[in-house]
Amino acid sequence: MCFILEPIDTVENITVEDFTRNYLKPRRPLIIKGLTNNWAARQKWTPDYMKEVVGNKVVPLYDNAKADPSKPINAKAAEMPFDEYINLIMSQPTELRIFFFNIFKHAPQLLNDIVLPKDLMGGFLESMPAMFFGGSNSVTFLHYDIDLPHIFHTHFVGRKHVILFENKWKRRLYCLPNSTYALEDYDVLNPDVTKFPALEGVRGTEAFMEHGDTLFMPTGYWHWMKYLSGSYSLSLRAWDASLSRKMASVYNLAVKGGVDSLLKMTFKGDYAQYREKLAVKRADKALADGKPW
Hints:
alpha+beta, Jelly Rolls, 5-stranded mixed beta sheet, single chain, about 290 residues, 6 helices
């Protein structure tokens, strides 16, 4: 491992004052193990229950393959009835995962089983809770969320390996131009530093999440996640209080996302090769300049 990783701070519970002073304002990640102790979901959301409430709704599935330059980002690899998919991830290893699934559209009663942590902070986007499902071996590629929210990410049933990096490291992580995700040619767990030397010495944090754990992931944080067993997570999103962050979110959505999609659809493989070369060039320069330190 070429990264310098420290454990993510972990607490059972935390006061509003401590959370605001030590994590929200300085934008530091935190795992709160007891945040969901009063959630009905902590006990109710078993695989069988999820199958019961969603049923055989056909869902798009994604794998670990590098993105096809001729397709939009997050293009599906397959599709399957939801209940069959749950049976799959709970019975055997698979790369297939469900990405940003609005499960509450199909089973709105699930909203009654969670509690937005408004006692810790405000700004929650109550219309945008989303779930992510994966089998052991499935990986969420290294990226940060384009709309720059704070995220409370709660895990259920199994275990998940999480690695986070502050946004200031984006060039050293080989961030692709006009995008919020990294070059997909290196293995985050075992990168080849002779081929990707800018990764050497990049500092981050990591944790192994278990059932009921909630990760507070501050705005703009890069994240990589690997499912260690068939399991699923819920993400609750909240705006940062600063006007500058809200403006950056609008810019990312309107300009970065729109420009990247347009160029990708127009120039396909040529554009993919161009931005990969530019990502390497920028990473090399950041390393030579000793940035971000």
